[in-house]
Amino acid sequence: MALLSRVADRMYWAARYIERAEDSARVLRSYGDVLADLPTSSSRWSPLVSISGSGVKLPAVAGSDESQVAQFLIADREHANSIVNAVESCRENLRTCREVLPREAWQTVNDLSIYVRGAAVTSVERRRRDRFLARVVDESRRLDGVMISTITRDEVFEMWRLGRYIERADMTTRVLGVRAASLLALPPGTVDEFAEVQWMGVLRSLSALQMYQRATRGPIEGPAVVRFLLFDHRFPRSVAGCLAEMRTSILRLPEYSTVLGAVEAADRQLRRSRPAADDGVALDAAMDDVQLALARLDNVMHEQYVVH
Amino acid sequence: VDELLEDDGSPRPISRELIELLHRIGLDDVRERQRVSDLEILTMGISFTVYSDGQNIDRAWPFDIIPRLIDGDEWSMVERGLAQRLRALNHFIDDIYNDRRIIADGIFPAELLDDSANYRPECRGVHPKFGVWAHISGSDLVRAGDGLLYVLEDNLRVPSGVSYVLENRAIAKRTFPELFQRYRIRPVDAYTDELNRLLSSLAPDGRREPCIVVLTPGIFNSAYFEHSFLAQRMGAELVEGQDLVVGDDECVYMRTIQGLERVDVIYRRIDDLFIDPEAFLPDSMLGVAGLMRAWKAGNVGIANAPGAGVADDKVVYAWVPDMIRYYLGEDPLIPNVPTYRCMYDDEREHVLANLGDLVLKPANESGGYGIVIGDRASADELEAAAESIRADPRNWVAQPILDLSTGPTLVADGIEPRHLDLRPFILTGESSYVTAGGLTRVALTKGSLVVNSSQGGGSKDTWIVDTNHLSAHQPAQSQWQSQSQAPSQSQSVSD
To answer: Which DSSP string corresponds to B351-398?
Structure first.
């Protein structure tokens, strides 16, 4: 039996939302960690708001206040991409396609949603935050594990994978666009003694530190980090790696030619950003272009499989 | 009467093992098991939706862990009685939309159809497969003070609750594993398979491996959990109206990622009036334009058939025993509750003179809404009800206030008796199937008779226990036979 368009759409969005919650949790965790190592003067929380890429803007003053930013990213009900809302959106999407889901998968997201609803507000506080964020990441991983180990490799599963990877690719470009670009943009000749700490933070926020070290066997240098996160297709959170996974999924779906075309276009856009790895301003712009290509891919999939 | 206890408070033979266990483990352990089961319901996401304060709230399903036990011999008679009842009701619906013999023969008054809220003239002349219209039904049973089970009402439109029967059992097995070893309890899991088989049989002729869908009004419906559950258990698609389209060939299709795919059978969980804006309410967003055309052309099976609700009317209910005699030539195996029909002058006068001793029911409400219980209503409420009855007598019936049976239930103060009813589910197609037990609903408030989950009712698992090995127990069959010989009380009222 073919997959209902509406169900396909909801699986895809459920995957995007849970990935969004997980990625926000990772970024927020590592950021707090990095800032602890920096002198207070350079403690700035506003980049996190930019990374979350939401239309809602915090007041400029609030943008640098840790607890307000954490509140905004974790528990703000008005903020569509806050962790509490992203988890809830995932649950709502899955609640409307339970008939195609392994039961354990539903229970996992339901559990997480109960936990997040209860704990989000109190977890804004720094002391409790890390445990909360770690749990969000763990449960999201658990959900993936249930999917991978119990669901038939049919279109439902491919929609899930597509949602996961497009969201992940998008998040990687955001982290690079905002944080890496600002690090690379230091005037030539100035030495930021904390650069290495911060680049480590970038890697950590994408759970990429160890894999980077294994892959490069070298020191932590900005351009090498950017290249690893963009182009090392063996690393599952790199943009190239995400695109490769999406390509595999798309080839298993019906009538895929236009969708495949959009993935290839995103891939070309990605390769065009190669020279930008050394230059902060160019990198920021190049990441915007990749994000646009991903948005076009999202559009093409919607046209092909949902509204047609 | 109590389902589990004798009048002197000692356990009935059938419930001895259960009651002894409760005593042995003590109240603290019972509460602990209840807590674990509540938690399980929460994390399994077993919920129902209530509409309140302008919001749809997804609430955890209320479940009382102490089961309700019914003897297997008594149940076998109930099964036959329900199958009999649904056969007769289906004959009636088919007759009403076609030959109308029962009216011609003077058994059923034609004027009842004219203003029946659930009669659909659009269905005249349609012949669904097997002559069956109400494929999936739920009849509410109550045990009265005389110890007998009565049918309180038949739900022939879109009865819900069966998913909770299955979920309650799954939890009960984990709550009292030791009892499942001691008792022979009939399993309930077969229901979704039987439903699948029934729905498959409704496919247009020649369609192999028919495509079955469950049509839901969507996430905001109170029974959405169940729609999703049934689709999942049957491997069917859960669709909303927007997922379906009727083609120029008068066949129904669903929108998939590969384009349109033919649908053979629709288990619709949407009320008649909303299923097809072309035939019924033009502004319904829930249905599919052209569905009635496709159904009439025989290109899709619909369960329950549109129009089946004509027999799901608290007034028409009073004629069911007559239908059983008329169509089947049999006596009803399960009696009706005596019912006064306010459309008849003498019965109405009796009702108006005895308001305080009766339950007053509007003909076409469900979920327990609109019901007035005489001895609990204020004088003003009774006067308002009398007013409504005089204004629209056809749409009111009255029944004696039944002393509903109780079952021991865990409440704040310990284990106390609470009133119960029972909704078994009946599948009717080429043959019949009745769930082993059904959904026992319990009024959690002391003394209350309102069991609806939307109004604070809870539920219990229902165990049909085969007791042949319990030497002390005598089968209750003799009671049933004597009952089925006697004319039903509603009969004597109407004559």
So the answer is: HHHTGGGEEEEETT--TTTT-EETTTS-HHHHHHHHHHHHH-GGGEEE
Q: Which residue, chain included where needed, has tokens 């569509």?
A: A80
B348 Cβ neighbours under 8 A, 6+ residues apart: B340, B341, B342, B389, B393
Instruction: With beta carbons under 8 A apart, name residues in chain A contacting B43.
Output: 107, 110-111, 114
Which residue, B239, B101, B424, B294, is CA-closest to A5? B239
- The pLDDT score that the predictor gives to residue B54 is 62
The Cα B112–Cα B322 span in angstroms is: 15
- CA B484 – CA B462 distance, rounded (Å): 25
Among the ranges A57-61, A304-308, B196-200, which has the highest mean pLDDT value?
Answer: B196-200
- Which residue in B382, B393, B383 sits closest to B340, CA to CA? B393
Structural element, H or E, at residue B313: none
Please check whether residue A52 is in contact with residue A73, taking contact to mean a CB–CB distance below 8 angstroms: yes
Burial of A53 (0-12, 13-18, 19+ CB in 10 A): middle
Contact (CB, 8 A) for B357 and B401:
yes
Q: Tens digits of per-residue pLDDT, B457-479?
A: 899 999 999 987 544 444 444 44
Q: Nearest by CB to B239, which of A4, A155, A253?
A: A4
Q: Give chain A positions within 8 Å (CB) of B231.
A: 99
A253 touches chain B (CB under 8 A): yes
Nearest to A5 among B42, B219, B256 (CB): B256
Q: Is the CB of residue A230 less than 8 Å from the CB of residue A270?
A: yes
* Residues A227-247: tens digit of each pLDDT: 999 999 999 999 999 999 999
Mutate to test the interface with A, among B237, B239, B256, B263 (most CBs of A within 10 A): B256
For residue B336, what is the DSSP state?
B
What does each C-alpha distance from A287 to A49, A181, A239, A291 come to in angstroms?
Answer: 17, 10, 10, 6
- pLDDT band for position A42 (50/70/90)? low
Per-residue model confidence as pLDDT tens digits over B260-279: 999 999 999 999 999 999 99
Cα four-point dihedral sign B443, B445, B447, B452: negative
pLDDT of residue A191: 62
Contact B394, B315 (CB under 8 A): yes
Q: How far is CA A175 from CA A205, A291, B223, in A?
A: 8, 12, 43
Q: Nearest-CA distance from B261 to chain A in Å?
A: 8
Within 8 A of A1 by CB-CB distance, chain B residues are 211, 237, 261
Find where tokens 């002559």 sit: B131
pLDDT tens profile B337-389:
999 999 999 999 999 999 999 999 988 776 667 889 999 899 999 999 999 99
B257/A8 CB distance under 8 A: yes
Would you call B261 an interface residue with chain A, using a CB distance cutoff of 8 Å? yes
How many CB atoms within 10 Å of residue A180? Answer: 24
DSSP state letters, B83-129: HHHHHHHHHHHHHHHTT-HHHHTTSS-THHHHT-TT--GGGTT---G
> Is residue B252 scored above 80 in pLDDT?
yes
For strand B406-411 and strand B372-373, is the pairing parallel, antiparallel, or unpaired?
unpaired
CA gyration radius, chain A: 19
Q: Say if the Cβ atoms of B219 and A95 lie within 8 Å.
A: yes
* Chain CA centroid to CA B359, Å: 19
CA distances from A12 to A19, A64, B344 (A): 11, 34, 60
Q: How many residues does chain A have?
A: 308
* Partner A contacted by B228 (CB < 8 A): yes
* 8 Å CB contact of B45 and A100: no
With CA atoms as reference, the chain A residue closest to B239 would be A4
| B257:A2 CB<8 A | yes
Going by C-alpha positions, the residue among B249, B168, B201 that lies closest to residue B461 is B168
